[in-house]
Each structure stands twice: as structure tokens, then as C-alpha cells.
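MODEL INPUT / OUTPUT PAIR
PAIR INDEX: 1
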Amino acid sequence: MPSRPLKPGRSAQGLEPPKFYRLIADSIPHMVWTASPDGALDYFNAHVFAYTGRGVRQLAGWGWRSVIHPEDWQRCLETWTRALKSGEPYEVEYRLKRHDGAFLWHLGAALPQREGGRIVRWFGTCTDIDARKRSARLLEQARQTLEALVAARTQALEEGGRRLRAFLEAMPAIAWIKDSRFRYVWTSASYERVHGKSVREILGHDDFEIWPEALARHFRRDDAKALRVNGPVQSIDSVPYENGAAARWLVVKFPLPDESGALGVAGIGFDVTARVEGGRRVGDPQPEGALDRLSGRERQVLRLIVDGLTSAQVGERLGLSPKSVDTYRSRLMAKLGIEDLPALVKFAIRHGLTTAD
């Protein structure tokens, strides 16, 4: 056992992947891992450590066997061995041990990265399918996430920053980078297209030269917060489309050094307008009855979860243990008849249960 845990996002050999790639991997709502050609796991994102409660040295190599349900291990091993020998995609369902001892069903999937026809690494994800074990929607989401990760990693290794930017241009989101003076130094083509602003209007300018003052102040406040906490900050922003129609964005911002070495801010925004404004799904609770079932403390916990705080951060804010926060979250989902965290966030935003501006 190590005397102190390694930071999330480090490999078993102590090699740190490119910072921007690691932040993307840690922001994705899946457990992400990589393995060497012989099948030994050597990298995990932060979600792996949060779910299992174990460190990289406990899971690296073949240590991950300790979190697979004993009844599923042989099938999992045989499937993994076939994939390693054939080079075909790996896909298997198994029960994975959570930090509190509970076993939940997950879909494990992996794709090989090749160089010159030779497999040099495997990229894998674990997706929680316990609530809807054989959901085609979750399977497709996991595959798309995995393919995007392999593409980003391969492009970054082959051609550095230019290829990574090409990946960001193609992803279904908007992205941007600001220098240490909060001036835009790069935006994705999707950013310009969605907001109807040209490169000349954006690059070299700060938000107060581009957006209305109230919106610019909001952006600046989140930028400053990302630098202050020296880590990712999540918010829900209201920024209109080019035609002026209302739009809602799930935004993640994080510190990124500029060319001088000083910290600037980078961001990625995902359009959640359809999820927030769209009609209810089958099984969604009725607003009146659902809200009546929530206590004041449950509403407090829900607001902070929606604002992107971890269980530990919510607990510190409200004087609760992280385990108690997890219990509150499970109770909230049960009361509201909601099966996953994205649906919980959607419900909270629709009914105004968020502290975001």
C-alpha cells in the first residue's frame, strides 16, 4: 500500500498524460482506463477512484480483479483474453464493487489503439447499467465516448496540439481558450457558428468587449473561480443562439497555462436546451407531487449537486459526511422516480432547484 494516494489521472508508471486530455477524461461521466498490449491496466480517471474507493496501485496491472464480482470474473477474464489475442473490440457485462461494498452492473468496453498495424494500447470505459441493464441508449453512449477518447489520444500523440484541436472542432460541443488576461486566444468553429460571431470579433478580446455586461460579469466570475480553486468549475449558462433564441449550456471551465506560462482558462460547453426545455419522458414525476416530497435539506443537497459539487464538497458545505450526501442523493432519486444523475440534473433545472445564475 502506498503511504499516500496518487493523484487521480496518473498512470501506474507515474507518467502524466497531457493535461488537457486528462481534464477531458476526468470530466466524462464514465469510468475510463487504459491497458498495455498484454492487458495490464496502467491508467484510470478520477471516476474510477471515486467509485471503487481504491488507489492506482491497488488496481494497476491485474489488481482490478479485486473489484469484479467473483461469479463474473471467469467470464470477464475469458472475454478480455480473447480480445487481447484477436485485437477485436472488448465488451462484457459484469458486477463492479463500489466503495461501500455494493455490487452494481456495469458495461465494460475497450478498443485497441494501433500504430503501424500493431496494438500499442487499449482504451476502455465502464458504464453503470444497473438501473437499465441492457439499454441500447447507454451502450451507444459508451461506444461514442470510447471512440472519441481513442481519436483524441491518437491525434494528440501523432500531431500534437493541431490534431487535438481538430478533435475539439469535431466534437458535439463548443470550446474556447482564454489567456491569463481572459482574452480569447482560440475558439472552436462550433463556437463561432453557434453564436454567429467571427474570429475578428472574438480573438484578442475579452467577454466585456463581446457580450452584454451582465453576461460578461457572469463569465468572468466563473473564470476567476476556476483559477481560485485551481480545478474544473461547472455551471448552467443561458447564452442565446445566433438567431437570438434562448439556449441553455452545461459549461465546464478549468485552468490552462497560456504561452507565457501564466494560467488562463479553457472551457467546454454542451447544449442542454432540449433536455431542459423538452417534454417529460415516460416515468418522469409530475412537478407538484415531486416537489412536495422533498424536504428542505434534500433541496439544499440537490441544488449543490446540480451546481457540480462533489459529495465531499456538498458535505463540507452542509456539515454532512460524503457518505451521508450519497445517501441523500439515492433517496432523492427514489422519491422522484429518477434513475440516473443526468435525469436528476434535468429535473432540478426545469424546476429552478439550482443556485446557478
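PAIR INDEX: 2
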Amino acid sequence: MEFEPVIGLEVHVQLNTETKIFCTCSTRFGSTPNTNVCPVCLGLPGVLPVLNQNVLKKAIQASLALNCHIASYSKFDRKHYYYPDLPKNYQISQYDLPIGYKGFLDIRNNDKTKRINITRVHMEEDAGKLIHSEKSSASFSYVDYNRTGVPLIEIVSEPDISSPAEAHRYLEVLKNRMRYIEVSDCNMEEGSLRCDANISIRPTGSKELGVKTEIKNMNSFKAVEKALEYEIKRQIEMLESKQKIKQETRLWDADKEVTTSMRSKEEAHDYRYFPEPDLVPIIVGPEWVKELKASLPQMPDEKFKQYIKKMGIPDENAYRLTAEKELALFFEKCAELYDNYKSLSNWIISEIVQYLNKHQKTIHDLKKLDPKSFVSLVKMVDKGEITSRVAKDVSTEVIEKGTDPEKIVKEKNLKQVSDVSAIDKMVDDVMAEEPDAVEKFKAGKEGVIGYLVGKVMQKSKGKANPKVVTELFRAKLK
């Protein structure tokens, strides 16, 4: 029997406000443990929470960016459970009346667009953090309450995701949108973005959902993908061996690359939800929603379409350029200076994006990168003043220091050599040094000409015009 997975994701995004959701304590990451706390976030008797308006504003902006409806009337609820890092023994969250509902995200899947529906976006406070001793013999853990009360939104998708790869893509698109509208830095290492996955298996084509498990403790998008792959395999093997899948919460063990049982899955009634008596309901007027919607920047999918239709950029280039807001803005600054958009996009991706990936940086880290200098480099290649190989050698200094590429080329004498007589001598030398390659070409293996051209490029230190080199080889060999 063939099986298919059904996946839904619950994503917690920490909002980048300066103070917590119900008090004035700082949300700064990395502070000394238990210093960003007060009677309100510690849940001491007699205190009253007050909603941070900036949290509400950012929650509405996030909901709008996810194409959600905004509730004109919503409220907070108490979600009861005991855990050492939850000092009140309940969490203030939203249950049946969230701030955002019925949204969607469109993702690209094998060059097609797929819509993932979003059930809800709700506000809630974060819990603290347990710090376990590194000694295996230790029988205790420390608790840091600094994170208690830090504002979160939880984004719950419908079970519309059909594969681990789709889950990875959905998370990338969601993270991208949150960073575009600047409501969160979505730094997974600091806990600003966390994801739990719900997954079940059913016979392919069936409409009935299987028994789901929830997976926690995944600290990267790749970990989400791997955990889902493992869980799909585990559940299929259980069904094929006639075992019963039970509803439970499982933890992802990144070292062993397996999921392990944590506890039976709770239902809503286990949390004993009831309306938060210390907070008034939230009433949002249509004028404010309209104002916040107008304040949102151009979304990445809108930029994607613009780059393809108006600038003629290939789909893959447009997709990679819009993956980060800062990268898209850098491209647009370059496009104001030079209208060969395709060439610009190719060089940004091949040089800047590769540099960022190699050094694990963001374009925000490149303080000296100057659009004018980078455009100058691309123009020099397009005009034939330097070869692509020289441009690649020069690009690092342009990226790191913002140096004028014309100055580098002049100082190091790197201008492209197109003088036929100078190149002719190098071609003859290579033919004499590579008789086997010459014979292979004469025998019909024309692909070997790339090898010969490469040898001339080495001799010229990348300065020879590759087009002239190729033409000379073809003339001499034929």
C-alpha cells in the first residue's frame, strides 16, 4: 500500500519589541539570568498585566503579511499547565478568538505555486528557560526567567503540507515575510523562531486523516525536514507491521537523528482554558487595520513578479534575490545605476550570495559594500574590459572593502588582452604542450577545446579574451 504524509506546522515568532508583552521588563537577549524580571512577569500575588500596544501592532502587521483577516474583537485566555519555567502555572495566550485568522502563504514547489492555508495567528507570552547541568550525575536544573513574558505570535497552518521539503520551503517563506516587515529577526539560534510539526500518515488518496504525532525540539529548518523524514518512515513501518500509532508528543534527537516519545499529546480540555480576567477584550477598528496595511513594505512575492515581468530576470535569479530583504534592496540600488538587470542579478548571485554563504554572513554585515563599485565591476565585464575570471578575483576586495574595481585593475594590470598576436603565441605554446588533447579534438572530441582554452587562460593569468582564444584554437585545429 502507498502512503502519504499530512503535515501542519505551529511556528512561534518572537516579536522584536523592547519590552515584554504585559510589563516593562526588557526583552534583551543574553542578559544575566533573572535580571529582566519583575512581579508581573514572575506572576506574584496582586499584580495586574497591561497589554503592550506595540505587541498588538506587530501581531496585526504579521497577520496582514500572512493574508489573514483581522478580528475586530479578540481576547486573551489562560492556558493552565505546570512546568518549572512557567512561574504563574498558567500562560496568557489566545484560544478561541485569535487576532488573525483564515490566511495563507503561497510557496513555490517544483516551479509550481502551492497555497498553504493558515488557520490562525495568536498572541501569547513566552515561558522561561531551563538550564540543565552538564554533569550527568546532577539531580537539578537552573531556571532563567528572563524570557518569561517575552511577546510571541503563534502561526498555525492547516494540514496542507505534503512533504518535508514543502515544510522547509513554507518555513523559509514565512521567515522571509516576518523579516521583510521587521516584526522579528527570526534568529533560530536565539529562539526568535521555533517550530513544532504535526504529522500523520494515510493511504494515498484517502481523505481521512491518520493519528498525528507532534515533533518538538527542532532548532533549524534542516532539522525540521530531517525529523519529518524520520517520522514518516517510522509511522509507515508501524502501519505496515500492523502496529497502532498513538497520539503523542515526540522529541527530535539531532545527534542520533531519531524521534523519541516525550508524553501523550494534550487536548484543549487538558489546559482548562478560560478567559483571562485581568485583561479587557481587544477591539480593533478598521481604520487602524487599513493604516497598518498601507504601512507594509512590498512583499517578496510582489518583488519576484516585478523582477520577472518588468526586468526580465530568470525565475531562479528573482527567487534568490528576494529571499532576503536587504539583498533585494541592494539589487534595486544597483539597478538604478545600470539597466542590464540580468547581468547584475547573475553577478550578485554568483559573487555576493556565494560569499555570504561561504562566510556565514548576511549582506547587512558587509558595511563597506557599495552598489556603485559593484556596478562598475559588472560593467567592466560586460564591456569586455576584463574577463570573468579577473572579475571573480577582484570581487572579494570590492565586496569586503568597497574598493573601486577600476583602480584594482589598473594597479595590477588586469585588463583583458584581446591582441591576436599576443594570444596567438600562447595558443601555439599550449598546442605544443598538449599533443594528446590536440589529437582528441581532431578525432572528433570537440569538448576538449574547453580544456585547451583553460590552459591559455592560466598562461595569461586570466587576462586573455576567451572568445579570441577559442576562435584561434578552432582555426588552427581545423
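PAIR 2 NOTE: Residues 193 and 312 are 34 Å apart (CA to CA).
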